[in-house]
Amino acid sequence: MATSNPIADIFSRHAQSVYRLCYSYLGSTADAEDATQATFMKLVANPREFVNAEHEKAWLLTCAANLCKDELKSARRTRSADMPDELVDRTASAEGESDLMAAVLALPDIYKDCVYLHYYEGYKTDEISVMTGAPPSTVRNRLADARKILRNALEGGHHDR
Model-level pTM? Predict the structure, then answer.
């Protein structure tokens, strides 16, 4: 009889979302793979009980974002890369998609977190507030600011953030 492995089940449910988030921060396939692995290794090292699959996902994405931020601080590096085709949001229209993704990747981290969690993972502002520790009003303001920055970037304008 085969027994279910809870970590493997969690991995199969959320690995792609964790990887996409890591790639959005690190801009490198190898670095994103390393960060994804490190995220799940934290779960292996310190197993925890989750209320449901959304709780799992929220914990994993928060953990992954923190690992990526630590990596970026320690490496003191900059990045610029296009999202690989297999990671692009298939619900978006093909035209302008790469420009939008490049603009999202260029956002400062405080905006990128909110934009990614809201538009790519479907979290509401109250949920993002819990995940990031920022008040809901701050999350809403960051989303509004990010939309302005993205609009300016996509229209060829300049922004001051």
Answer: 0.58
